[in-house]
Design goal:
Length: 517
């Protein structure tokens, strides 16, 4: 990928431009950008008056959450990280992995920085994982299962969730090993997991019956072609949960993709959900169907896929469970472990734009897949070093509160603006300004002083990211760097090509934010 050119952390053209790979002096570029701003009339510039932004909704305090796949907890075969070469047809898509070390100090420190959150332990492999509720662990999965979860491993999940401020969400096994002679699902495995969790002082906050009932996975997920059978099994599950764990939220259907099966399965399930959940991936990775070109990663068509999938499932929610809150319980750049770009700054545009869109649309929870596995992890799975998406997540957590505001700037090619009350600051407002144009700067007039946090990189397909021109890295003791904004006066603000900027306006005096966060 070519160099993206000028990057700026300037305030209304008053600071220099960082440039890589050219001999053009920063002062000349600054003059060009100032001329660009001055050539526009005030009427042409989108503008925001933070004090006047109206409240349009609220999201859960745990809005930004994440997944740790069940196969990470147990160890097993999961999506193989990319090497230098393209995956060829017929190559092994998976790699064997040891169980994730949930006691790792770096992992815990970085997860804690994203608290509060939900931690979802599920995924395709959870559909066929046997919970070994005994001191003795079987050497191989019993018939009808393909993985084993030990007491010690699940206790590790509980301890991790407490340590990092995350509440547990999960799903249960539904593979042939959970069924009676007639093929009917039985709740024995679910009952054992719930009982053990309670016995060690843990708690499951919410549960889906199974992972993605409309996606067949031979040997892992039960067949979903028979809607009547699914409805029968879901009815058993719902009755069991209401009887044995009435304080656990029932999520569903947890489906993926816009498939015809979704309506059939919902109609057969008899409803009775507490939360309507769904999964969204804009594409499948090259492991499964081919390469996702990085040239399209900033396109309006690509970013709008978030809205398209939500609209599909919101129509189903309105038809079958009107009024229920909506959670997106699994999402990332692409299914099957993510494309190569998932670990680069390119995907941070998708990640943060998705949070902005979904908060504005009223979705209460968004769970990124994964925290630290394969290429779409927020952290590198080998060493838990933060990837660009993690830094984006950290800024969102620190600056964007739960009250959603109308920014007054419609989504347009190259400029997306989202507004929330500022986290932890009464009367304050936080803005997220995304310039998706690779070549042109954008201007936004702000009539209040702000603190500016601009993310950029020298190369968009790089795993490094800068904040206001300084590299974001952990210290030698794994401490997060100091995160401070540049003080910025009111007026026209210039946003360089392919940059992401948070603006904190603590003195906005927004009445809608007076008693909210």
């Amino acid at each position: 990928m070519r160099d993206t050119g000028a990057r700026t952390t300037q305030r209304s053209g008053t600071r220099g431009i960082r440039r890589t790979g050219t001999g053009i002096q920063a002062g000349l570029i600054s003059m060009v950008l100032i001329a660009l701003a001055c050539s526009r009339t005030q009427a042409d510039e989108p503008s925001v008056t933070p004090a006047m932004l109206a409240r349009i909704g609220e999201v859960d305090a745990r809005f930004q959450s994440y997944n740790i796949e069940m196969v990470e907890v147990t160890g097993g075969r999961f999506w193989k990280p990319y090497g230098p070469d393209r995956f060829e047809a017929g190559s092994d898509l998976f790699a064997q992995r040891a169980p994730i070390d949930l006691t790792n100090t770096r992992l815990r420190k970085l997860a804690t920085a994203l608290a509060p959150a939900y931690l979802r332990v599920s995924g395709t492999w959870a559909n066929a994982t046997y919970f070994a509720d005994s001191a003795t662990v079987p050497s191989a999965p019993p018939a009808g299962f393909n993985g084993v979860l030990t007491r010690q491993q699940w206790r590790g999940v509980i301890d991790f969730s407490r340590a990092v401020g995350a509440r547990i969400v999960t799903s249960f096994a539904v593979s042939p090993g959970t069924r009676d002679a007639a093929g009917v699902w039985t709740p024995d495995q679910a009952s054992r997991l719930l009982a053990y969790t309670a016995s060690v002082g843990g708690h499951i906050a919410a549960a889906e019956f199974m992972n993605e009932p409309n996606v067949a996975a031979p040997g892992v997920a039960a067949t979903t072609d028979d809607a009547a059978a699914y409805g029968r099994d879901f009815t058993i599950f719902r009755s069991f949960m209401k009887r044995e764990a009435s304080d656990v939220l029932i999520l569903g259907p947890g489906m993926a993709g816009e498939t015809d099966a979704a309506a059939r399965l919902l109609a057969a399930s008899g409803l009775g959900l507490d939360v309507f959940s769904y999964h969204h991936y804009g594409a499948s990775s090259e492991r499964c169907t081919g390469t996702r070109p990085s040239d399209g990663a900033l396109s309006e068509q690509w970013l709008a896929r978030t809205d398209q999938t939500l609209n599909f499932y919101r129509r189903l929610r309105d038809r079958f469970e009107p009024g229920n809150p909506i959670w997106l319980t699994e999402t990332a750049e692409a299914a099957c472990g993510g494309n190569r770009l998932a670990a680069t700054f390119l995907d941070t545009f998708r990640y943060l734009d998705q949070l902005g869109r979904l908060a504005k649309a009223g979705v209460q929870i968004v769970m990124h897949n994964t925290l630290a596995a394969s290429d779409y992890g927020l952290l590198d799975e080998k060493n838990f070093v933060p990837r660009p998406n993690y830094w984006g997540a950290l800024l969102w957590r620190r600056l964007m509160g739960t009250t959603v505001l109308e920014s007054g700037v419609p989504i347009q090619a190259g400029l997306h603006v989202y507004a929330h009350c500022q986290h932890g600051t009464p009367d304050g407002v936080g803005l997220l300004v995304i310039n998706t144009d690779r070549d042109a700067a954008r201007v936004l007039r702000l009539d209040a002083a702000s603190e500016r946090y601009t993310l950029d990189t020298a190369m968009l397909d790089d795993g490094a990211v800068r904040l206001n021109g300084h590299a974001l890295e952990l210290s030698t003791t794994d401490d997060l760097p100091e995160i401070t904004g540049d003080r910025t006066p009111a007026g026209p603000l210039i946003f360089a090509p392919a940059t992401i900027t948070f603006l904190a306006i603590p003195a906005a005096a927004n009445a809608a934010c007076r008693t909210r966060r």
